[in-house]
Amino acid sequence: MAKKPDPFLIDEENPEWTAEDTAKARPFKEMFPEQFAAWKRRGRPPVTTPKVHIGFRLAADVVEGIRAKGRGYNARVEAVLRDAIASGRL
For the stretch 32-66, what's the b/e string if a residue is b when 16 or more beta carbons lie within 10 angstroms of its beta carbon? Predict the structure, then answer.
């Protein structure tokens, strides 16, 4: 015997979407570009030259030595690499 739907969960102003409704759906940004542009973004503001994430392995003793100097080691490693590039050592 089929279970009757709960009348408190039926919302005639907001019917359940069908596959056809989903196929016709478009992103908010596309449908309302002015409102999308007016939204305040959360998080970090966009930068003109964003950093790039790379991954590589280093010897454990090198990592321990870098981290032993405390917080901000990413910036210190970047400074050392910039110096090496500028001086032609890298």
Answer: eeeeeeeeeeeeeeeeeeeeeeeeeeeeeeeeeee
Q: Which amino acid type is present at position 52?
A: V
| Sign, CA torsion 49/53/58/64 | positive
Tokens of 73: 């080691």
pLDDT in tens, 4-42: 778 787 788 888 889 999 999 999 999 999 999 888 778
Query: In sequence order, which ranges of the chain are alpha helices (DSSP H)?
Result: 19-24, 28-31, 33-38, 60-68, 73-86
Q: Is the pTM of this model over 0.85?
A: no
77: how many CB neighbours lie within 10 A of its CB? 13
CA 73, CA 79: separation in Å to the nearest integer? Answer: 10
